[in-house]
Design goal:
Mean pLDDT: 78
Low-confidence stretches: 1-36
Number of helices: 2
Number of strands: 8
Oligomer: single chain
Order of helices and strands: EEEEEEHEEH
Largest sheet: 2 strands, antiparallel
Strand content: 15-25%
Shape: elongated
Structural class: alpha+beta
Helix content: 25-40%
Strand order of the largest sheet: 1-4
């Protein structure tokens, strides 16, 4: 820990790692250095993140960090991200490819399957609403033009 008044924490890394220290503070810049030993972090920061780009230490994995693989618990929820994950076209039905998870039943009941509600999914109802909004907008514009023409006709009649 540094003894300077405005600096509080020093993040140490091994010499062959790349350290990326991000701060959420508005005045503190993002520190990105290669082969660093330490990076100074401000007292005003509310969080910090150190990213290791090296997965091994010599010939071995880093114990407790890169030696185990933990699968993601949940899949993507947004339609475009599901398409990206499964390399789908726009014609493919995204609802068939949602990542589902089984919840074991309690007290001898059947297992249930949970799936997220897909966000930003373009459905016929959404297209219908979009058409309706555009139609109403055009009608408002036409009504406004007609009122303006009627007003100007009254102005010239005087």
């Amino acid at each position: 820990v540094s003894t300077q008044s405005t600096w509080e924490a020093v993040v140490s890394t091994q010499s062959t790692w790349e350290a990326v220290v991000s701060t959420q503070s508005t005045w503190e810049a993002v520190v990105s250095t290669q082969s660093t030993w330490e990076a100074v972090v401000s007292t005003q920061s509310t969080w910090e993140a150190v990213v290791s780009t090296q997965s091994t230490w010599g010939d071995n994995d880093l114990p407790g960090l890169t030696d185990t693989s933990i699968p993601r618990r949940l899949g993507p929820k947004r339609a475009t991200k599901i398409r990206k994950l499964f390399q789908l076209d726009r014609e493919d039905d995204v609802r068939q490819f949602v990542v589902r998870r089984k919840i074991p039943g309690k007290d001898g009941k059947k297992d249930t399957v949970k799936a997220p509600k897909i966000q930003r999914l373009v459905t016929p109802r959404r297209l219908q609403r979009r058409r309706r909004v555009r139609k109403l907008k055009k009608e408002r514009i036409a009504k406004s033009k007609a009122q303006k023409a009627r007003y100007e006709a009254l102005q010239h009649a005087e």
